[in-house]
Amino acid sequence: MSTPFDHIKPEQAELIRSSPVSFVASVADDLSKGPDAQGPVNL
Asked: Is residue 11 scored above 70 in pLDDT?
């Protein structure tokens, strides 16, 4: 399991800005479908 955070550190922000490709992902804690029947993992 991972630990949720509501912010990123300056070092992480710099890594994101300097990376040619990056993505953000989220997942429902209980792996349930979303309100529009989308899957629990969003990229």
From this structure: yes
* Residues whose CB is less than 8 angstroms from the CB of residue 8 and which lie 6 or more positions away in sequence, other chains included: 16
Residue pair 34/19 in contact by the 8 Å Cβ criterion? no
Please choose, from the candidates 13, 31, 18, the residue with its C-alpha nearest in 3D space to the C-alpha of residue 42. Answer: 31
- Reduce the secondary structure of 11-37 to three states and give it as a string: HHHHHHHHCCCCCCCEECCCCCCCCCC
Cα 22 to its chain centre, rounded Å, is 11
Whole-number mean pLDDT of the chain?
Answer: 85
Please tell me whether the overall predicted TM-score, pTM, comes out greater than 0.70 for this model. no
